Amino acid sequence: MTVKLQVKNLTKIFGKRVVRAKELLKQGKSKAEILKETGATIGVDRANFEVESGEIFVIMGLSGSGKSTLVRMINRLIEPTDGSVLIDGEDLMQIDKKALRDVRRKKMSMVFQNFGLFPNRTILDNTAYGLEIQGIDKVTRNQKANEALDLVGLNGYGDQYPTQLSGGMQQRVGLARALANDAEILLMDEAFSALDPLNRSDMQDQLLDLQETMHKTIIFISHDLNEALKIGDHIMIMKDGEIVQTGTPEDILTHPADEYVEKFIENVDRSKVYTAGNVMIRPTTVNIEKDGPRLALKRMRENEVSTVYVVNNKRELVGIIDARDVLELVRQESRDLQSVVNEDVPTTTEETPIADILDDISQTGIPFAVLNDKQQLRGIIIRGAVLGALAGNEVNHFA
Amino acid sequence: MLNLMTIAKIPIADWMDHFVDWLTQFTGFFNGLTSFIGGIINGFQWVFDLIPIWLFIIIVAGITYLANRDTKKWGLIIFEVLGLLLIWNLDFWRDMTQTLTLVLTSSLISLIIGVPLGIWMAKSDIAQAIFKPILDFMQTMPAFVYLIPAVAFFGIGMVPGVFASVIFAMPPTVRMTNLGIRQVPTELIEAADSYGSTEWQKLIKVQLPLAKSTLMAGINQSMMLALSMVVIASMIGAMGLGTRVYFAVGRNDAGGGFAAGLAIVILAIIIDRLTQALNRQRKH
């Protein structure tokens, strides 16, 4: 993965005595002290992060955390007080107005919370806006705009006006306008926050679908952690203008950096984030090619379980055997474990989100077997571990 | 107690006199301006004199009909036709077209100066801070006061009338242009900027189209103010319905004054409704 966007020490101070405030900030004074001494507010405090090419990078925070200011500094809608933004190694802070316009036209497109559609223009003209101001002729730009509208599923709405469309459709137009430009970087500022929950979920899915083929570098601002966890490859959590934690969704959930993040993730729907790999436990197994009924019984007794999983020499899952059947074998002095193996075991993969198998787990008595792609048994899922994970207890990190 | 009368009177009147005297030395400039404004006036008047009265009435009714296609305001159209016929009947037609010329010329000049000024105020807070009090001043200073320097610069006739009307009538156009542009939602400005619009593209493609209805309301106000200036302007020789009112006052002719005043009211209603209808029609 190559780094597409690099943000170094990006700072925004609002107010009049900015220079003095900057000095104080460097001396390590707190925001309250700076506000008291200079009357200046720190919008964003020395943000440092990197965004890889083709990933969805979610900047997360409550209102007032500086996330919207931060994203606007990336395309300089808000002029930073200090720091630099590098796109493919080129520093945006060093370029003049004309070059900046060029970057905005070709490299970065933005999607807005309240859609930012021009009410006096048709959907097609809205979508083609970015191309129009580049001076691209009408036939070409309308063709590209129509392709973009196709992508977001708004074929045939080109002649309508924004007010004639629902919120979800309007935001699709906003997305289409950004896609029509074919920029490598999309800045999405709370793009789905104004939509109702169903629409929001739809749009998230659609964005992920589109991303599968487009591989844009997306900076997505959100105040909704569930949204961040669903679409983010990396998540950065901000508070009061500072970055609290940056990491993968799993990092954030499993190793919250501080109490603030912990409180944040308290209400997360973990079943959508945790995978079978996170909650599986080590199974009690016997090797059908080596072990006999007596060993199977001994293992069950040791682990206080009534079933044991059967694997072969390659650790591929063969099935499951029950204590009663094994006892019967021992009484008959038979060594034929194969005859009592129940091959009807529910299986899943390590990457499967728990949400997808939650219903089945609660219905089947036999624990799910978790297999890797070579059909080897990696673990099993028991109900207790699932409930524990959903309640926020420790989970495995080896998945 | 300090008596302010005992200290020397601040010579504001003298200063202004000196300023006006100083300005009048630019005769060449004012002569040029006079012929320019005069040209516009003559152009309008020539057109109005050329069009037969019946055709004029049909044109006004036709525009009203087209502008109100959806709502079909037959009442307004009937009012316009009857009103104009009444003006014709009262033998005020030529006066009415002169007044209309004065209003249209003043509005046109207000538009040409006012819209760019309003744009400038919208783009620059400093410009706004400077021009706002000046606009307040222009609007609240009694309109009669403008007549005096107007005569000094442009002599007697239609042109000083237009000059005084422009000063009095321009502020709403400037204000509403400024307001209209500033009222465009921040997000739309950000959208325009984030896609790399130049200032000019942003103005032409986003700000002005979105400010249009506010701007049109300003122009409508300017026209009404210009119309309210016609009687005052008649004192310095701007011909039209205002002259009829002014003469009626001199002759203590209540009936004649009312008739001419009624004609002004009819003209005002027609101009007001027509510009409003044009504004409405352009909204989506």
Write a concise keyword list for the protein shown above.
heterodimer; A: alpha/beta; Rossmann fold; CBS-domain; six-stranded mixed sheet; four-stranded antiparallel sheet; B: 284 residues; MetI-like fold; 13 helices; 0% strand; ABC_osmolyte_uptake_ATP-bind (chain A); P-loop_NTPase (chain A); nucleotide-binding (chain A)
Helix content of chain B: over 70%
Biggest interface, CB < 8 A: A-B, 31 and 18 residues
Determine the mean pLDDT of chain B: 89
Count of folded domains of chain B: 1
Total beta strands of chain A: 16
What portion of residues of chain B belong to β-strands?
Answer: under 5%
- The pLDDT mean of chain A sits at 86
Q: Note the quaternary state here.
A: heterodimer
CATH homologous superfamily designation of one domain in chain A:
P-loop containing nucleotide triphosphate hydrolases
Helix share, percent of chain A: 25-40%
CATH homology superfamily name of chain B: MetI-like
> What is the CATH fold-level name of one domain in chain A?
Rossmann fold
What top-tier CATH class of one domain in chain A fits best? Alpha Beta
The CATH level-2 architecture of chain B is identified as Orthogonal Bundle
Subunit structure (chain A): The complex is probably composed of two ATP-binding proteins, two transmembrane proteins and a solute-binding protein.
Enzyme class (chain A): translocase
GO molecular function (chain A): ABC-type quaternary ammonium compound transporting activity; ATP binding; ATP hydrolysis activity
Pfam families (chain A): ABC_tran, CBS
Describe the structure in your own words.
The complex is a heterodimer of chains A (399) and B (284). Chain A is an alpha/beta fold and 399 residues long. Among the domains of chain A are: 53-78 and 96-107 and 183-268, Rossmann fold, CATH 3.40.50; 276-390, CBS-domain, CATH 3.10.580. Chain A is built from 17 helices and 16 strands. In chain A, the strands form four sheets. Chain A has a six-stranded mixed β-sheet, sandwiched between helices. A four-stranded antiparallel β-sheet of chain A has the order 2-1-4-5, with helices on both faces. The longest helix of chain A has 18 residues, at 197-214. Chain A is elongated, with a radius of gyration of 27 Å. Chain B is globular, with a radius of gyration of 22 Å. The model of chain B has no long low-confidence stretch (mean pLDDT 89). In chain B, helix 5 (93-123) packs parallel to helix 8. With 284 residues, chain B is mainly alpha-helical. Chain B has a single domain (28-281), classed as MetI-like (MetI-like fold, Orthogonal Bundle). Chain B has 13 helices and no strands. Chain B has helices spanning 12-24, 27-50, 53-67, 74-89, 93-123, 125-140, 144-154, 158-182, 186-194, 199-228, 230-234, 241-250, 254-281.
